[in-house]
Every structure is written in structure tokens, then in C-alpha cells.
Amino acid sequence: MDRIILRQSLENYRTPFEEESEFVDEFIELTFDDSAFLRSRLEGHFTGSAWIVNKRRTHTLLTLHKKLNRWLQLGGHADGVENLLEVSMQEAREESGLTSLRLVGNGIFDIDKHIIPQKGDIPEHFHYDVRYLIEAELNEPLTISNESTDLAWIPFDSVDDMVGHNPSILRMLEKTSRSEFAL
């Protein structure tokens, strides 16, 4: 059932960003694959992420990913769970320690297909990342997980420098300032 809801959400998903709209059909097609929610699907699989912002929309929470050594949004593998909002919220809690997490809007915020480099005996593969806009309290204490080397609330005007001009993250930042997601 969750897979059907995801497919319908993707079919109804609209974005003004050409680079994002180019792979919507691929995401939809992937929902028909029984193994798409498992990391054992080595050519690529679904992941769920949380673009976490504070209520005033001045900061985003980023993690310095231990394996990739890059500042990224929080998220992770579906590991068989077809409800990617549930995956995103669980990963956000586990990776930050935050309990004040709240979904903003009523569905998918962003999607991104990106390559993950080979690590040990795991070959290079794609992550089909479905992202949700999540709001949290800026003053709530943070807990760094074993998947990160750092975790920080980054002011919006510093995100570009922090993420090394990552177009996917900059797209989410731009979306956050749009009227439907602004305060």
C-alpha cells in the first residue's frame, strides 16, 4: 500500500526545476520493482531524507557524513520500508536526537538521483532519494550519531559555502524560501 501511495505522490509531483523533473519517471518506474526499497539492489535503491529547517526559516540542520565526508541533509536507506516519510523521520531522529520534528506541507518536498561511490565490496550505485521538509526547534539539543562526524544548524546564507555548491542542496534551500514553504 505504501508503495502505491508513493507512486501516486510521484505521479502528482511537480517541480519547476528541470534537473529534478528529468528523473521523475525513473522514480515512478522504480516503485514497480520489489527490490527497490532494499540496499541489496546494487544498481540503485530508494532512500528517504529530511530537509530540516527551523520555524523562522533561517537555518537548516546538516550533518557531516562520516563515509562521504560531505555536509548533507539527514537521511538513509529504506531497508525494506516502503513509507519513505517514515524512513525520513526515523533517520532524522536517529541522526540528530531531535524530538520536535514536524512535517511541513503534505508530501514530497524534493527528489534527487545521485551516485554513491564504491566503498569496500559495495559497488558504485544510485540513491533515489525522496525528501521531505521537516521543521524542528533550533534550541533543542543535538546528538551526533555514529554515521556523522559533526552536526550543525547552518544559517541559510552560509549553506552554499558549507556544501561545496551542491546543486541538490541549493535547490532545497531555494524551495524553502518559496511562498508555499516560507513562514
Automatic annotation (TrEMBL):
Keywords: Hydrolase. This is NUDIX hydrolase. GO terms for molecular function: hydrolase activity. It comes from the Bacteria. Residues 43-176 form the Nudix hydrolase domain. InterPro entries: NUDIX_hydrolase-like_dom_sf, NUDIX_hydrolase_dom.
